């Protein structure tokens, strides 16, 4: 990636960012902005009187609606805000349970924990590495009110199976699409199956709106009616014409759900203009990531110790990350032995994520430390991710692949 400083340490908690001493870095951004994207932001800075809640918001929401086919689209400040809104709209409370995959980023679960509902961790499918519908169904009780699914790493969850379970048990479904914009099942985009879809345009995502941003998609008209107030401090206009536009006030402030305080989760005009421009190249970004992943998988076919998620027929996995599993049990080695070589000797900024959420102090201290996820427990500790961004040069891919094969050969000796 161009524009990377080779000396300054800027890695965030996820491990992305420039860290000195690496031959292959793990950039914090997927790719540089295009001129089209840069110009979109400058246009708002120069020409738009309105800096928030104006024409660019409307256009971005319309563009996202056309792109995904969602019924209703609301741009918000980040996916965490979208998830928070979804958790409020699910009307969860302390008497309820919500099923959430344990293998995901913490933001998938925190908004649901905030409602007071009990988090029940779901296991992963051993083949696709995303939430296992059969385990979800096993964990449903008469207190279960919602299922959160995460299209993690860009892999679509088996939504037809999830929706069948949800309909059978009358449950709400929230799709966390933070890592999956453009992922689809038989052409139907993620974020259009469940009651809600939550997208992220955080700086590291396949598209970003200046580091932060998000979208909430909503299926029903009834839920959609409640979002503008919940998103914007309960603000709304008065109905009808008023001779004195300032009486009784310039606008009204009210609640949308009995007893629920509203939030401020708006996205500014420059970010919305950028969102429209980035959406225009999202498919190209995703296709490049898919092609890179394919090249690595083919090149590693001769390394049976390395395995990849199986992609079900009709599923479009957009490879927000490139995660692999290492099996060195036959020669008494594990992922950490492998990374010792890749990181320290071959200087690849290889990373490991996402730690099963129930292992974190946050969830343990807030009462969500219990788990029953044997597949995840048996799998996660031997996973790792190659350095990953859009447009990795062929010679870098070759270097990473040959380094991995060489490291395995050495571990076997
Ligand atoms: C799976 C998942 N869910 C939710 C989020 C939260 O997104 P945001 O940073 O836009 O709030 C992220 C961000 O990394 C994510 O990866």
Structural description of this entry:
With 413 residues, the chain is α/β, with parallel strands linked by helices. It has helices at 35-47, 55-68, 79-89, 110-113, 133-138, 159-169, 221-231, 269-299, 335-344, 361-365, 374-379, 394-412; strands spanning 72-76, 97-101, 118-122, 144-150, 172-176, 184-185, 188-189, 196-200, 214-218, 235-236, 252-253, 306-307, 315-316, 323-326, 383-385. It folds into two domains: 35-278, 3-Layer(aba) Sandwich (Aspartate Aminotransferase, domain 2); 281-412, Aspartate Aminotransferase, domain 1, CATH 3.90.1150.10. It contains twelve helices and 15 strands. The chain starts with 34 loop residues before the first helix and ends with a helix. Residues 2-7 have low confidence and may be disordered. Pyridoxal-5'-phosphate binds at residues 78-80, 104-105, 107-108, 150, 152, 176, 178-179, 200, 202, 214.
Task: Name its key features.
binds pyridoxal-5'-phosphate; 413 residues; 12 helices; single chain; seven-stranded mixed β-sheet; globular
């Amino acid at each position: 990636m161009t524009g990377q400083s080779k000396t300054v340490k800027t890695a965030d908690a996820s491990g992305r960012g420039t860290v000195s001493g690496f031959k292959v870095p793990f950039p914090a951004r997927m790719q540089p902005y295009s001129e089209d994207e840069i110009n979109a932001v400058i246009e708002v800075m120069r020409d738009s009187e309105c800096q928030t809640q104006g024409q660019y918001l409307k256009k971005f929401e319309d563009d996202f609606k056309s792109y995904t086919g969602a019924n209703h689209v609301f741009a918000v400040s980040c996916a965490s805000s979208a998830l928070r809104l979804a958790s409020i709209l699910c009307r969860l409370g302390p008497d309820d349970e919500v099923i959430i995959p344990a293998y995901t980023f913490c933001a998938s679960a925190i908004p649901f924990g905030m409602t007071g509902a009990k988090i029940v961790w779901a296991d992963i499918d051993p083949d696709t590495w995303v939430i296992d519908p059969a385990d979800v169904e096993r964990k449903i009780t008469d207190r279960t009110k919602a299922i959160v699914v995460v299209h993690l790493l860009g892999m679509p969850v088996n939504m037809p199976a999830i929706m069948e379970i949800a309909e059978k048990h009358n449950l709400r479904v929230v799709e966390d699409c933070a890592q999956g914009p453009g992922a689809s099942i038989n052409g139907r985009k993620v974020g259009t199956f469940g009651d809600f879809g939550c997208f992220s345009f955080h700086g590291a995502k396949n598209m970003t709106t200046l580091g932060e941003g998000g979208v909430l998609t909503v299926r029903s008209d009834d839920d959609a009616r409640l979002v503008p107030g919940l998103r914007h401090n309960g603000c709304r206009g008065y109905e009808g014409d008023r001779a004195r536009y300032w009486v009784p006030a310039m606008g009204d402030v009210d609640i949308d759900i009995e007893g629920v305080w509203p939030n401020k989760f708006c996205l500014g005009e420059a970010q919305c203009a950028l969102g429209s421009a980035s959406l225009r190249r999202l498919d190209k970004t995703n296709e490049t990531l898919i092609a890179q992943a394919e090249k690595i998988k083919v090149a590693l076919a001769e390394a049976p110790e390395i395995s990849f998620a199986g992609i079900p027929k009709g599923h479009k996995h957009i490879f927000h990350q490139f995660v692999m599993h290492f099996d060195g049990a036959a020669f008494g080695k594990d992922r950490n032995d492998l990374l010792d070589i890749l990181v320290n000797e071959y200087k690849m900024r290889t990373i490991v994520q996402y730690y099963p959420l129930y292992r974190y102090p946050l969830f343990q201290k807030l009462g969500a430390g219990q788990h029953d996820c044997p597949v995840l427990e048996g799998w996660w500790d031997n996973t790792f991710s190659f350095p990953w961004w859009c447009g990795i040069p062929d010679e870098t891919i070759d270097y990473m692949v040959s380094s991995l094969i060489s490291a395995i050969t050495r571990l076997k000796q």
